[in-house]
């Protein structure tokens, strides 16, 4: 996600800012609580760690929700994601 921003202060230049973020989305049946987890490898130790705090979703029926993992696309090893529900 990048946005071009043109400066109007004394030196008119255009700067590009990038979030380098990944949007992880999933479908869940309500009510539910979810935690987004990630690991740098699969198998073996299965070392998934929590990325998000507990996300509380209220209501009835299915809903699509998401989590924005900021900065993950810059100088990070590959990540595998999963959603832990409880």
Mind explaining what this structure looks like?
This protein is mostly beta strands and 86 residues long. 0% of the residues lie in helices and 59% in strands. It has one domain. The strands form two sheets. Strands 3, 4, 5 and 6 form a four-stranded antiparallel β-sheet that branches. It has a two-stranded antiparallel ribbon with strand order 1-2. A hairpin with a 7-residue loop joins β1 and β2. The two termini are 31 Å apart.
Overview features:
0% helix, 6 strands, 86 residues, two-stranded antiparallel sheet, globular, 4-stranded antiparallel β-sheet, mainly beta
What order do the helices and strands come in, and which of them pair?
Elements: E1 2-6, E2 14-18, E3 22-39, E4 49-50, E5 55-69, E6 80-85
Give a brief description.
By secondary structure, the chain is an all-beta fold. The protein has strands spanning 2-6, 14-18, 22-39, 49-50, 55-69, 80-85. The strands form two sheets. Strands 3, 4, 5 and 6 form a four-stranded antiparallel sheet that branches. A two-stranded antiparallel sheet has the order 1-2.
The separation of the N and C termini measures: 31 Å
Query: What is the percentage of strand-forming residues?
Result: over 45%
Q: Uncertain segments of ≥5 residues (pLDDT<50)?
A: none
Q: Please, what is the average pLDDT? A: 82
Approximate helicity band: under 10%
Q: In this structure, how is the largest beta sheet organized?
A: 4 strands, antiparallel
Coarse morphology: globular
């Amino acid at each position: 996600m990048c946005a071009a921003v043109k400066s109007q202060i004394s030196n008119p230049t255009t700067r590009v800012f990038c979030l380098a973020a990944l949007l992880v989305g999933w479908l869940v049946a309500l009510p539910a609580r979810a935690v987004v987890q990630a690991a740098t490898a699969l198998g073996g130790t299965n070392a998934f760690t929590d990325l998000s705090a507990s996300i509380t979703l209220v209501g009835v029926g299915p809903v699509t929700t998401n989590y924005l993992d900021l900065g993950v696309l810059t100088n990070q090893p590959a990540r595998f994601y999963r959603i832990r529900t409880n």
